[in-house]
Amino acid sequence: MNPISQGSVAPAFTLLNQDEQAVSLTDFKGKKVLIYFYPKAMTPGCTVQACGLRDSKAELDAKNVVVLGISTDPVKRLPKFIEKESLNFTLLSDEDHQVAEQFGVWGLKKFMGKEYDGLHRISFLIDENGVVEKVFDKFKTKDHHQVVLDYLS
After folding, report:
1. Within its chain, how far is the Cα of 61 from the centroid?
2. Which pairs count as long-range contacts for 75-81, CB under 8 Å and 24+ apart, including other chains?
3. pLDDT one digit per residue (tens) for the chain, 153 residues
C-alpha cells in the first residue's frame, strides 16, 4: 500500500452513489472535497466516523467542503447505511476497489492474526483544483471529523 501524497493530482474517477447515480470527482470543481475511504458500512468504527462527519456538516459546508465516503460495499448497501444513521453526504461504491487502488489505499491488512487485502481508513482533502491538499492517515474514528476541522481552521 502506498497512498498518493500531498501535492499529487487526485485520480479522476466516477462511481455510483447510494441512488445508483454516477458521481465524478470533476463534478466538484471549485469546491474542496474530503474523500474518506472506510472499510465497511454499518460496522462500529465506520458508523462512528460517518456520524462525526454528519454532525460536522454545517462547519464543513462553511469551509466549502463536500464529503464523499468511499467503500467497497455494493451500491445496494449504501442507502441502508444512510437511512440508519441519517447521513447527510454522498456515499460511493468502489466494489472492484479500482479507485481505492488509484489512491493507494487498497492493500495488506492484519486482523486477529489473519492477513488479507482490504481498504485502509485514509482520507484525502482535495483542493478546488483537484490537487491533494492534505492526507489524513493518523486518527481515531471518533476524532476523524475534528482532525479535519482543526486542519481547515
Report:
1. 16
2. 75/16, 75/17, 75/18, 75/20, 77/41, 77/42, 78/17, 78/18, 78/41, 79/18, 79/19, 80/41, 80/42, 81/18, 81/41, 81/42, 81/50
3. 789 999 999 999 999 999 999 999 999 999 999 999 999 999 999 999 999 999 999 999 999 999 999 999 999 999 999 999 999 999 999 999 999 999 999 998 887 888 989 899 999 999 999 999 999 999 999 999 999 999 999
pTM score, whole prediction: 0.95
Task: List the chain domain ranges.
Answer: 14-152
Q: Which three cell numbers stand for residue 74?
A: 455494493
Would you please indicate which residues are annotated as catalytic (active-site) residues? Answer: 46
14-152 has which fold?
A: Glutaredoxin (3.40.30)
